[in-house]
């Protein structure tokens, strides 16, 4: 019944999805934390930049961002993220532009999650730290962010699971991840459509469900008691 799967690189497609999710999660966490710091910064220019960035890219469809990265940056502006001498430069470029779009988009949700965690930290702690002579960056790094991260593990888990599912949008710019393979299989295996959908549904459940359960357990263990 599942013999047709042997004709496709199913594991390779899901491996590309995993790599997209992993690298985008790291990039989004780093950039989202920087944006959150900007949004609570005492410097008006930094607060303004963070606010505009989040409001613009959070409300822009991910498909539009990925197409802009692929067509606007790559084909129109001739921006290359992979060596042109590489035999797989087209695939590498597509992967990296998809990664860029996912980071630009997902980091806005990470930023808002972390900012909500920052708002849960008592103001008196930051004021006491500033009174001791700590700079704004030191207050964030030593006092505020460690508590904020512990309180937003659950929201960040939801963002990460959404990111894994959002990698399917990378198919619109030809990245060979799970959704692109599924569309190919739907075209070629018209007599096994239900099986095709079932296989990919199970694949994404395997990727997201254990992760959600594990991070939910971590959130309970790391919860800040107030």
Notes on the structure:
This protein is mostly helical and 226 residues long. The protein has helices spanning 10-39, 44-58, 62-76, 89-120, 123-131, 136-151, 153-166, 178-188, 193-222. Helix 1 (10-39) runs antiparallel to helix 8 (178-188), helix 4 crosses helix 6 and helix 8 packs antiparallel against helix 9 (193-222). The N and C termini lie far apart (55 Å). The mean pLDDT is 85.
Write down the Rg. Answer: 21 Å
Indicate the structural class. mainly alpha
Total beta-strand segments: 0
Q: Report on the biggest sheet.
A: none
Percent of residues in β-strands: under 5%
| Count of DSSP H/I helices | 9
The pLDDT mean sits at: 85
| Shape annotation | globular
Order of helices and strands: HHHHHHHHH
Could you list the spans in which at least 5 consecutive residues all have pLDDT below 50? none
Assign a percent range to the helix content. Answer: over 70%
CA-CA gap between termini: 55 Å
Short description:
The protein contains 9 helices and no strands. The chain has 226 residues and is mostly helical.
Question: Descriptors for this entry?
Answer:
76% helix
Which helices and strands, and how do they pair?
Blueprint: H1 10-39, H2 44-58, H3 62-76, H4 89-120, H5 123-131, H6 136-151, H7 153-166, H8 178-188, H9 193-222
Helix pairs in contact: 1-2, 1-4, 1-8, 2-4, 3-4, 4-6, 4-7, 5-6, 7-9, 8-9
């Amino acid at each position: 019944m599942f013999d047709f799967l042997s004709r496709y690189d199913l594991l390779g497609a899901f491996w590309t999805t995993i790599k997209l999710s992993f690298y985008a999660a790291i990039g989004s966490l780093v950039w989202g934390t920087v944006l959150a710091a900007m949004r609570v910064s005492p410097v008006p220019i930094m607060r303004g930049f963070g606010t505009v960035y989040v409001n613009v890219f959070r409300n822009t469809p991910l498909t539009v961002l990925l197409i802009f990265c692929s067509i606007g940056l790559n084909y129109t502006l001739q921006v290359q993220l992979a060596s042109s001498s590489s035999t797989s430069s087209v695939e590498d470029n597509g992967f990296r532009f998809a990664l860029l779009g996912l980071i630009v988009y997902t980091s806005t949700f990470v930023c808002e999650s972390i900012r909500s965690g920052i708002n849960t930290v008592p103001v008196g702690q930051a004021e006491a730290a500033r009174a001791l002579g700590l700079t704004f960056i030191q207050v964030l790094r030593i006092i505020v962010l460690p508590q904020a991260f512990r309180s937003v593990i659950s929201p960040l888990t939801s963002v990460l699971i959404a990111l894994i599912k959002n990698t399917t949008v990378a198919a619109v710019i030809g990245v060979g991840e799970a959704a692109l393979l599924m569309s190919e299989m739907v075209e070629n295996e018209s007599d096994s459509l239900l099986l095709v959908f079932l296989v990919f549904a199970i694949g994404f459940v395997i990727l997201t469900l254990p992760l959600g359960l594990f991070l939910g357990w971590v959130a309970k263990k790391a919860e800040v008691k107030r």
